[in-house]
Amino acid sequence: MNILFIMYDQLRFDYLSCAGHPHLQTPNFDRVAAQGVRFTNAYVQSPVCGGSRMCFYTGRYASSHGAHWNGFPLRVGEMTMGDHLRNSGMSCWLIGKTHMKADVVGMERLGLSTDSIIGARQAECGFDTWIRDDGLWGHGPDGFYDEKRSPYNAYLNSKGYESENPWADFANAGVDGEDVASGWIFKNADKPANIMEQDSETPWLTTKTLEFIDQMDGKEPWLAHVSYIKPHWPYIVPAPYHNMFDASHVSPATRHEVELEDPHPVFGAYQGNKIALAFQKEEVRQKVIPAYMGLIKQCDHQLGRLLDHLEDKGRLQDTMIVLTSDHGDYLGDHWLGEKDLFHDPSAKVPMIIYDPRAHADATRGTTCDALVESIDLAATFVEAAGGKVADHILEGRSLMPWLKGERPEWREYAISEYDYSATPQAMQLGLEPRDARLFMVFDGRYKLMHAEGGFRPMLFDLETDPEEFYDLAKGDSHKAEVDRLYGHLAKWGLRMSQRVTKSEDDIKAMRGRSLRRGILPFLADGTEVDEELLSKYRGKVKQKFVE
Questions:
Q1: CATH number of the domain bearing residue 237
Q2: 181 pairs with which residues across the strands?
Q3: In a domain, 497, yes or no
C-alpha cells in the first residue's frame, strides 16, 4: 500500500463543506471524507509552520525535538517518519514544502555532506526529495527571504514569465493599470493573479505529484508528502477563482468586545500586532476572505485531479490518503490575524484519512471526535506500512484502531506549545527568550493556556462558550479546573521523551543479563543466586601465587 500525505498550509478546519462551511463547497475533500474518517478534534502541537511541521514529521512534541519556530534547525540525528518507514520497506518522498531548516553545524561536526544520501536526508527532514518548494520567495532590499533556488520560479521563467522573481510579480500579484498590484497588500486581494491558472502554484505542484505517481508505478511502496503552500498568504488567486466569492459570503467575525477588556498580556500583545490590526478592519476581511476561499476552491479542484488520476490508474484501491494542515488562520476572529495562539481557528486543523483496505469498511463516511494530535500521523503511517511503532521515540499514537472501528483507550488531553521568543511580541512584553513560551492543555471541554514569564493562565469552557470568548481564569471561580489542567500539564512534562536509544522491550531484555554474564556484586555467601550463575567462579585453583 502507498500513502498520499497531503498538507495544505494554513487551511482552517471549518473552511470545508464537509465541516459545515455555509458557502464554500469542497466536493473533493468531501469525496475523501465520504470514503474515510474525518477527525473533528485534531490539534497541532505548535500553531506555527516550522514548529508544527517538525512535530508532524518526527511524531514528537516540539519540546522533544526542539525546532519550535521557523528557521530553528531540526537537530541532526532526530528520527523522522522517513527513517521509521524505511525500516518497514517504504520509501518516503517530499513534493513541495517542509519549512525544514537543516542543522548545518551538527552536520559539519559529524562530517555529513549534503551530497551523500544520509546527509541529504538529514538536510531534508528525512525525506527523499522529488521537488522541494517552500513557497515563500519574498524579495526585498536585502535579497531573497529564501536563498535557495526556486524550482517554481525556474518553471515560470521557462513558461515565458519574464522576471527575476515571477513568484512575486505574477503568481502572487495582480495588475493595477500598468502597475504590479502585489498580493502582499490586502486591498489587492480581489484582483486576479496575473498568471495563467494552470501555471499557478497549486496546479504546478499537482502536476509534479502526478509525474511522481506515474514514475513510481510498479516500484516499492511509497509515502509521498504532497505539501501545498496555499491557501497560505499572500491572499491572491488567479481567475476564475478570484471572484467566485464576495463579501456576501464572508461570515461575521467570531469575536466579542469582552475579549478587549483586560486581556491576558500575551493575548493583548497579539491583538495589537500589524496583521491583527489589519484584520480588525471589516473592509480587509471582505477582500481577503473571498480570496482565501478561492484559494481553497482551487486546492479542492486540484485534489480532484489527483483523485481522478489515482482512480484511472487503479491506485485508489491501494493508496491511503490523508488530508490535513499545519495550522489554521484567525482571519479576524478573536481580533487576530494569522495563527500563533490556541483558539480553535488557529490550533485545530482538518484531518481526513481514507484507508482503502477492507478493515476500514465499517468506518467509511464517519466522523471521530477523539482528541487527536498531529504527532499521531507518524505512528499511523508506520502501522499502516506493517511496521512496529517505536513508542520510545514516537510520542503520538496510531489512529489505525479508530479507522478499523475500534474504541481504544485514548488520551485524556491534547497538548500544543508555542515558542514566540523570536517575535516582536516577546520584545514588547520584555521577555527573555526562555520565558516567551506558551502551552495549551485541552481535555475536550476546558482549554487552558499557560504562559511562562510570570503571567496568569487563560481558561475557556468550550461546552458553554464554544466561541472561546470568556476567559474564566480572570477570577478564582474556576480554580479547581485550572488546577486539574495544570496537573495534566505536569504529568505531560514528566513524560519520558529523551530515552530514544533504548525501547521498553530492550530494557526488559537487559534485566538480569549482567548476572548471566558474571557480574555478581553484593553476595554475602553465594547462596543468594542460582548455582549456575557461579559456575564460572567455582573449581580448583589452577596455579597458586599466594599461600
A1: 3.40.720.10
A2: 174
A3: no
Final residue belonging to a domain, choices 352, 385, 411:
411
User: pLDDT tens digits, residue range 233-248?
Assistant: 999 999 999 999 999 9
Domain count, the chain: 2
Give, in order, the Cα–Cα distances in Å from 465 to each of 21, 41, 256, 316, 469. Answer: 20, 16, 12, 41, 7
Q: In the listed set 411, 441, 475, which residue is the last one of a domain according to the structure?
A: 411
- Its sign, for the CA torsion 164, 165, 169, 171, is positive
pLDDT of 67-109, one tens digit each? 999 999 999 999 999 999 999 999 999 999 999 999 999 999 9
pTM for the whole structure? 0.96
Contacts within 8 Å (CB) and 24+ apart, 491-494? 492/413, 492/415, 492/441
pLDDT band of 32, cuts 50, 70, 90: very high
Using the predicted structure, report yes or no on whether residue 148 has a pLDDT greater than 90: no
What is the domain range of residue 197?
A: 2-411
CB atoms within 10 A of CB 338: 22
3-state secondary structure (DSSP) of residue 324: strand
C-alpha 49/C-alpha 84 separation (Å) is 23
Average pLDDT in the chain: 96
Task: Choose among 43, 39, 45: nearest CA to 369.
Answer: 39
What residues does 437 pair with on adjacent strands? 419
- Do 175 and 71 share a domain, yes or no? yes
- Neighbouring residues of 59: CB distance < 8 A, sequence distance ≥ 6: 81, 84, 375, 376, 377, 378, 379, 393, 394, 395, 396
Identify whether 234 is preceded by a cis peptide bond (ω within 30 of 0): yes
Query: What DSSP string describes 465-477?
Result: -TT----GGGSST
C-alpha cell of residue 211: 509525474
Q: For residues 416 and 441, what is the distance between their CA atoms, to the nearest angstrom?
A: 7
Q: How far apart are the first and last CA of the chain?
A: 73
| In the chain, % of residues over pLDDT 90 | 96
Inside any domain, residue 241: yes
What phi-psi label fits residue 357: left (phi over 0), alpha (psi between -120 and 50 degrees) or beta? beta
The whole-angstrom separation of Cα 62 and Cα 92 is 22
pLDDT digits (tens, 9 = 90+) for 174-230: 999 999 999 999 999 999 999 999 999 999 999 999 999 999 998 999 999 999 999
Q: Are 431 and 71 in contact (CB under 8 A)?
A: no
